[in-house]
Amino acid sequence: MSLALYPPLNVRVVTPTLELHGATDELLAQLLPVVRAGVADREPFPFDDPMSLYEDNPVRERRWLQAIWRGRGTVRPEQWRLYFVVVLDGVPVGMQDVIGVHFKEFRTVSTFSWLAPDVRRRGVGREMRAAALHLAFAGLGAREATSEAFSDNVASNRVSEGLGYRRDGTEWATRRGQPAVLNRWRLGREEWAVTRRDDIDLSGVEACRPVLFIDPGE
């Protein structure tokens, strides 16, 4: 896909330790070995159903790519999803998505992410979420961000808590066909602003805003 025809692919979020790049096919191809090896291959399983990363090879790779291509091709006022590849020391190591549902009305985003197993427990998850929040609040004008994590997903829940989210109840979801409790988290713009960072840089956002049906100046 041409970067000029789809501006979200040009968006970049840069922190002192990592970068979020719009998920071009070239970057996705570099992530295929990680997907092939298995992102979610041990308990506790982090994703709710349906999730292509739970599928067996080679179906997993194909379904993962198809989901991203489908998401890029169905940007609508009522729902859009930005896909970013997480680049650490020049190497793609995971993905960080930012999702808007009726964003024009509610100014709320949610996030989704995964990391290669060998770079976990190094603070990367928190840093990539911080980058996504900076894009949402400083770049897109969000009022609120939400997140969900299964109650036994200690790492994801700690990231939300550490970034200032507040608890917002629980709900049930299935993972690999089995019911489990999801924790809900919510972060308002005012809470984010208290610890807003000045070492995160954005580029390509202005050209992206019209594609997401965000009016200039909003």
UniProtKB/TrEMBL annotation:
UniProt keyword list: Transferase
SUPFAM superfamilies referenced in this protein's UniProt entry, alphabetically: Acyl-CoA N-acyltransferases (Nat) (SSF55729)
GO cellular component, one term: cytoplasm
InterPro entries: Acyl_CoA_acyltransferase, GNAT_dom, Ribosomal_N-acetyltransferase
Parts forming coiled coils: none
Span of domain N-acetyltransferase: 39-188
Molecular function as annotated in GO: protein N-terminal-serine acetyltransferase activity; protein-N-terminal-alanine acetyltransferase activity
Protein name (Swiss-Prot/TrEMBL): RimJ/RimL family protein N-acetyltransferase
Upper taxonomic lineage: Bacteria, Thermotogati, Deinococcota, Deinococci, Deinococcales
